[in-house]
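hey so i finally got around to running both of the ones u sent me last week. sorry it took forever, my laptop kept dying halfway thru and i had to restart like 3 times lol. anyway pasting them below in the order u listed, first the sequence line then the structure token line for each. didnt double check formatting much so if smth looks off just lmk and ill redo it

first one:
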Amino acid sequence: MTMQTESQDILDRLKTAQSKPLGDPRFRSLMGLEKSTFSESNSAGSGLTFYDLELGAKFLYPVMTPLRNSIPRVSGKGGIQASWRAITAINTTGLRFGVSSANRGGVLAVATQDYAANYKGIGVETSVDFEAQFAGQEFDDIRAIGAKTGLEALMIGEEAMILGGCSSAIAATPTPTLTAQATGGSLPAQTWSIVCAALTLDGLMNGSVAGGVQGSITRTNADGSTDTFGGGVAKKSANATVATTGAAGLVNATVAPVSGAMGYAWFWGAAGSEILGAITTINSLVITAAAAGTQTAASLGASDNSANALAFDGLIYQATKPGSGATLYTMGTGSAGVGVGLTTDSAGGVMEIDAVLKSMWDNYRLSPDTMWVSSQEALNISRIILKGSQTAAQRFVFETAQDLIGGGIMVRTYLNRFSMQGGNVIDIRVHPNMPAGTILLTTKTLPYPLAGVGNVIQIRTRQDYYQIEWPLRTRKYEYGVYSDQVLQNYFPPSMGLITNIGNV
């Protein structure tokens, strides 16, 4: 038999075998032969299955730092603080300028003020153990990711500090005022005790009903040292009591607004056992049911923990600091749990914003250029302006294609009517850390000739961002990302702040 004949014989036999179905009666005694030898796995991590993993981790977290990105950064010159002096007013006595023949004029009086801002170190640590680096080979550079995430985390934390860092304590929380109703809720007949604690921006951002609010914080650092600082909770109020009747009671609770408070934590229950049940951004609350949290008011202690000694004062607390000269507008209390919202002037404007702008012009001849708001206030400003002047505030664009028609109107700028230009446009920007119920107005340039101020607001650094890869002490790489800086505001009256805004 030739090789060609042998090959042909093998092919014929294969064709004959393939023509026999697995259901042939001769194969029925061979159990399981009708099944596939290999089948698709139900799991991407098992079986002889290719794992289609894209190289490189995806970084799905926001790094939104608009203030850090826009505020100029300048180098400091050593020392422990940035210091400067300013002439803040001239002719403070109202001197008249007429002079009589051959006589000299009156003596001018001026006002001066000294300013100082202490440098603070900010930083964060990351680490990558040896095994994580080994396991990540051919996928990603885990050490580089550790350094990258550390820098981005520092920038996010720096942004929050620029807006609302608080190194000086805010006032103690006043005692709540309470009224009870027999219907409208589900509170049983009982004498209820309510305690309130005002929160700084830091306390509000890091607090929740489920997790509680943070009073005094003791942090263990990467080198084993510890730091103790305030978590943003002001000295809590004395408890107030009120009795409900029936089985469907509710309690209206209000407290006098606290300057610098971005929120309020409310505790209620039996006297001495009050439990955290709500966190609000206005100074009131309607209590309709038992508190859902677990943290007790007693756990906060009797001390003030609103100040963080490791932080510098951000824009909000530079504005609210006594004697700052910033224009502050606190909304009224209104109805419990509702508050007082922004109101239209029926001419395309917002009365409270106009009041702040008018005050800044009347007192300092200033016109701010940026309005920082939360998503809540961005929406409310648009609604109020459209409500007050629906036809004048709309623009219609007609397209031939019907599928190009879209809905929704958003107010992106606000016209300041109080300026030398006869009308100055203010940008409205949503800030990721701005709490609901608050609006901050800032000014980039002063309209004063030869003011000697290049940047009204700037970050002054003794040492800008730097990274340290620490010497090995265990089988892991350790990194620290740091900066040494302070937020310097040459003229705090350049800011305006509206707080305690209700969402109505």
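and the second one:
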Amino acid sequence: MAAEISSDKLAELQALGGAALITKLLDKFLENSARLIADGQAAVAAGDATKVDYCVHTLKGSALSLGLNEMGELLTQLNVRTKAKNLDGAEADFVKLAAQLEEVRAYKAKHFA
């Protein structure tokens, strides 16, 4: 599955707090990311590049800190554009992010229910 925690980050989180910590972090990530993706999509529709950049930057930090590298890569590329106030392709990227978030949800359900 593409939207899973990288093996090195998974080992680090296991050592820090095991499955209970990972479950808690994934729950918080899923909750916050769903809101940020929805807010980002609304901001794209409104042409609010500053709000889009905030959502993308926040999502990027969360995804990368959890070792969700594929999502982090997409967000890093999008963040380069949003920092320049360029929203070209942002709508499609948010659709991809929403799909990846559902993959993370499925990954959590399978491995950290």
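quick thing i noticed on the 2nd:
The chain has a mean pLDDT of 96.
anyway thats it, ttyl
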